[in-house]
Model the fold of this input.
Amino acid sequence: MAKSKKGSVAISVVDGRFRLRWMYFDEIRRQKRYTLSAGAENEVNRTAAEKLARTIELDIASENFDYSLRKYKQGLDRPESITVEALLDRYIKAEFSTDQTSSIERYSTIRNHFTRFQRSMTADECTEKKAISFMRYLQERGQSGETVNMNLTCIRAVWVWAIKKGLVHVNPWIDLKVDVEPREHPKPFTLDEIKKILEAFQGSHYENFVRFMLGVGCRIGEAVALDWSAINEDCSEIFIKQAYNPRSRKIKGTKTGKTRHVPVSPKIQALLQELRQSSNSEIVFPSPKGGRIDRANFRKRHWQPILERLGIEYRSPYNARHTRWSHEIESGNLSIAEAAQYAGNSPRTMLDRYYGATKRPRLQDFD
Done:
């Protein structure tokens, strides 16, 4: 559908329901997109939608536009009154399968925030003013600008879905966002630091796990979830298809929901071949008790103390991922696009979030 001009109302049919969309200003003259659901697709509602579109256009032209939209909602096919909590529950049930644990947890957390913000608030009561208040509530709870915007993106998706289903008429979240503080660039471990870390873990139960993490650059949950069935016969390539969720203690899909094949280096190949010969478990890197590695326990009792003892600036085990891909790109062995493919990210995400300079030369003096 072509974009409508400012002040012109476009009518479309989405999932069997009429939808009105237009561009205009809000009360403080900021440009804004508006959306109204206008009932199920039938001739009666079509006539009503066309009449309503002309009313809105005339009000805009005569500068009598009702920014609250109450005037335009009158007479529309009213959606059922549904609480925000119930709306989120329905969205989760409709859009996510049971193995998408991280996505379900994200939306469940948002639901809990709504409950604490205002219990049993209906979706109709969630006006733009109320949405702004909720956004500020999240900020007051200490959420970073990036996290707040991520939550707003999720909430927008819920309301878009709800409009299609006829559960709400208006999406008050469309243009909401907060300023984001500059992201600090990753600081990968240097080659000297990598050497010291590997030497420090030598002989420990986690030696091979750490070598693998630094050598492959996968997510920690993906390494913990790795089974021998995901490694080819000669151990030259691994198939990353799942991750371990420490909260639910269950195997789930990858963070992005996509699978990928990663060809490993000769040293990692040899390490995997040796492990396979001596392994009596389906898990490639089992914990000392034979189950999945508890990454919080690993970080607190092993990783952090070793970095402290070595005098290396603390970076979480996840930094192994930054380190692997930063060195691959900096050395010229892989392009950003190739590194992104093996890491399971887009090139932009690779550049923005994972790539960090591995060399930090000082500026030169003038002669």
